[in-house]
Design a protein that fits this description.
Hypothetical protein af1432; elongated; 2 domains; mainly alpha
Length: about 260
């Protein structure tokens, strides 16, 4: 082979090596780009969670438009419930379900007439019967959303009493869903401790005594003690705000 041909051959081989290296570099770059795109693309689970929480926020926005106090009350009840859920050792998924259930517990008040819902004085017997429909109305609003099936049940039964004298179905003891039993205590506690235009909220210690007095009749005794334990700890923190997982923001613990 002549010197000229040898040079041509070496040049061709070098070009092949360079082209191969370039192709491998491009392939590697493309693979990295694909991998990055996959990492930045929300998973189906993340997408479902996003739409799930958008649905929650939309329903709660409707409640806020109906009555700002009931909306704030629902946030505080959710905070109380999650606090006691942690005290009881619930899993992350259970705490999430409990929080959403508590946020939805009074959703049915959207269907209660303003004259009844916002009445500052004692309700008449007829008005009280109207108010008692709100847990069932919460269920009716949520029941057509399969993603809210558990939350709908928990909201429906949050006014059942441990002694079976509650509503809407008169369930008794452990036949009442546990989360409903927790919501009832948190709901009652917030009603007692919240300051309203027509009365001052009770101190925690007085509210605790009320819960204990009706433990075993209105309330689940075990949950009452867990609730008082966790709320005593929360009170000792001297924090004026709380946060939730589903609804973003810092919310005031004081209803006033």
């Amino acid at each position: 082979m002549s010197k000229k041909n040898n040079v041509i051959s070496l040049t061709a081989e070098k070009k092949k090596r360079d082209d191969k290296i370039k192709a491998e570099a491009q392939l590697q770059s493309q693979e990295m780009a694909v991998q990055k795109a996959i990492q930045n693309t929300p998973s189906i689970k993340e997408i479902k969670k996003e739409f799930f929480e958008l649905s929650i926020k939309s329903l709660l926005a409707a409640l806020k438009c109906k009555d700002d106090y009931t909306w704030g009350h629902s946030l505080r009840v959710a905070y109380f419930c999650v606090s006691v859920g942690k005290e009881m050792g619930f899993s992350t998924d259970e705490l999430y379900e409990l929080e959403v259930s508590a946020l939805f517990h009074d959703l049915g008040k959207i269907g209660v007439p303003d004259a009844v819902l916002k009445k500052p004085s004692r309700l008449t017997d007829e008005e009280f019967l109207e108010m008692k429909l709100h847990p069932s109305k919460s269920f009716e609003i949520l029941q057509d959303f399969p993603i809210f099936d558990k939350m709908a049940i928990n909201a429906k039964y949050h006014h059942e009493r441990f002694d079976g004298r509650g509503y809407p179905e008169g369930l008794k003891g452990e036949d009442i869903p546990l989360f409903s039993r927790i919501i009832l205590i948190a709901d009652t506690f917030d009603a007692m401790t919240s300051t309203r235009p027509y009365r001052k909220g009770l101190p925690f210690e007085v509210a605790f005594a009320e819960l204990r007095e009706f433990a075993g009749t209105q309330f689940d005794p075990m949950v009452v003690e867990k609730f008082i334990s966790c709320m005593t700890k929360e009170q000792s923190k001297n924090e004026s705000t709380f946060t939730l997982q589903v609804i973003r923001g810092d919310f005031k613990k004081d209803a006033a």
